């Protein structure tokens, strides 16, 4: 029998059969058995000859390269049975060293493994905490999130499903329910062990306590995203059940939603490393810019009514204009404090807008809805993307400052650095953006440091008009 199957493997390993067998196996999977027709287009003379011999009188016309051959799977099954006493799945296993599973069988196996994943996590949880994840006070506290996730009806399902497709998910899911246990049931135990006296725990400290890795619940980690979705789901359930009160007047901007979900769950997010630079009245030290972090911005209650914000992502250009401002004021014998109350502010985001700079701008616009945001950045892919992001975030309040096709072309020269092919393709994908299209066509970058002369002239003229010098 072993010799018999080996002969079948030798025979059907002929490359002239590969086109036909691929179609047969594909149809078998899709039709969940010996159903339907396998259709191929013959590619070579060798393949045509082999198929002509194989099917013999079953084919009603001569097979040539380019001929379409369509045959019912039952015909293939009969040939296999007659020649080698094999079925289609048996032949597949001989050739590929793995079973041929129909789509339905594959689905059933995936569903079984999915249920096993949750059973394994529950068993591990039960061994550690002496209670299960289905019928306990904990289950009620998290609104049956674990069981609803198992059925695909809870936030975080997509995260676990993606991990599951890659052969994982169990570790992240267990760490998530373990974190929820300490947040909802044994919070005081955790706080005591970590020496916490306040009403919240920092996210990295929670992650280290649960997993021994302070970064396990970072957003870039799937376990971190899963925990956040679980917290959001539970928070929404609390709102539906009247435990958390939804107040439309206390609504936060969309970019603060992630942080607020943590805070509603007793987790303090990172409000220190999110920062920005500001050079403006009410936010400066003598003649130096001030670094504001998100915590400071959130605690600030009295906001000046700036007429405009001049926003840069480039720290060197921000510093250049700050230096020129101080030099100009020193020459006039004035101080920054003597400028009009609504004089524009210089803002530096140091790259993409963080939550701190977003929140600062949002507060300025709330205080003065007529405040204009003048944005200027590098003429490269990232500069264009940041400008586009600012435009979308603060619709109707943004104007580009020296960041247009005319300025770009004025400072373009043959020694300007080339855009990468990837960056050029990204810019080409923005046909509605005139600057992006121009840059994609010219294929070169121009950095903001090139246009400092024009930026300074505009800014100093604004200063002159303000102090009437």
Give a description of the structure.
With 469 residues, the chain is an alpha/beta fold. Helices cover 54% and strands 9% of the residues. The chain has helices at 2-12, 18-31, 45-55, 73-84, 88-96, 103-129, 137-141, 145-150, 157-165, 170-184, 187-194, 203-211, 222-240, 257-264, 294-299, 315-332, 355-367, 381-393, 405-410, 421-428, 434-442, 452-467; strands at residues 37-41, 68-72, 201-202, 267-268, 275-279, 290-293, 308-312, 345-348, 372-376, 398-400. The strands form 3 sheets. It has a 6-stranded mixed sheet with strand order 6-5-8-7-9-10, with helices on both faces. It has a two-stranded antiparallel sheet with strand order 1-2. It has a two-stranded parallel ribbon with strand order 3-4. Strand 7 (308-312), helix 16 and strand 8 (345-348) form a beta-alpha-beta unit. The protein is flat, with a radius of gyration of 33 Å. Residues 1-5 and 246-250 have low confidence and may be disordered.
């Amino acid at each position: 029998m072993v010799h018999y199957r080996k002969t079948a493997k030798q025979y059907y390993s002929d490359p002239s059969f590969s086109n036909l067998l691929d179609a047969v196996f594909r149809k078998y999977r899709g039709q969940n058995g010996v159903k339907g027709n396998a259709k191929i287009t013959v590619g070579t003379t060798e393949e045509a000859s082999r198929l002509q011999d194989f099917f013999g009188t079953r084919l009603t016309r001569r097979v040539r390269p380019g001929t379409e051959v369509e045959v019912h799977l039952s015909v293939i099954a009969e040939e296999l049975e007659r020649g080698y006493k094999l079925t289609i799945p048996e032949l597949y296993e001989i050739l590929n060293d793995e079973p041929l599973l129909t789509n339905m069988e594959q689905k059933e196996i995936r569903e079984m493994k999915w249920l096993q994943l949750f059973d394994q996590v529950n068993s591990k949880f039960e061994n550690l905490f002496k209670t299960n994840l289905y019928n306990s006070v904990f289950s009620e506290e998290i609104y049956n999130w674990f069981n609803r996730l198992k059925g695909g009806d809870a936030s975080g399902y997509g995260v676990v499903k993606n991990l599951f497709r890659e052969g994982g998910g169990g570790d992240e899911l267990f760490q998530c329910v373990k974190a929820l246990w300490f947040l909802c049931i044994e919070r005081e135990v955790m706080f005591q062990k970590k020496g916490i006296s306040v009403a919240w725990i920092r996210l990295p400290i929670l992650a280290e306590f649960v997993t021994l890795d302070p970064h396990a619940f970072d957003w870039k980690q799937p376990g971190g995203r899963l925990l956040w979705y679980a917290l959001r789901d539970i928070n929404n359930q609390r709102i539906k059940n009247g435990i958390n009160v939804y107040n439309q007047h206390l609504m936060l901007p969309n970019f603060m939603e992630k942080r607020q979900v943590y805070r509603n769950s007793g987790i303090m997010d990172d409000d220190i490393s999110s920062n920005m630079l500001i050079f403006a009245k009410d936010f400066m030290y003598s003649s130096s810019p001030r670094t504001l972090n998100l915590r400071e911005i959130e605690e600030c209650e009295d906001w000046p009514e700036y007429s405009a914000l001049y926003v840069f992502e480039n720290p060197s250009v921000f510093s250049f204009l700050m230096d020129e401002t101080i030099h100009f004021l020193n020459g006039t014998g004035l101080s920054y404090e003597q400028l009009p109350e609504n004089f524009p502010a210089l803002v530096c985001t140091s790259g993409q807008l963080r939550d701190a700079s977003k929140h600062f701008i949002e507060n300025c616009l709330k205080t003065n809805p007529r405040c204009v945001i003048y944005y200027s950045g590098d003429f490269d892919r990232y500069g264009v993307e940041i400008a586009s992001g600012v435009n979308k975030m603060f619709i109707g309040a943004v104007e580009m400052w020296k960041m247009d096709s005319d300025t770009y072309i004025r400072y373009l020269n043959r020694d300007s650095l080339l855009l990468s092919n990837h960056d050029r393709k990204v810019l080409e994908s923005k046909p509605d953006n005139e600057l992006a299209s121009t840059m994609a066509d010219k294929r070169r970058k121009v950095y903001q440091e090139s246009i400092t002369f024009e930026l300074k002239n505009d800014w100093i003229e604004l200063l002159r008009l303000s102090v009437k010098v």
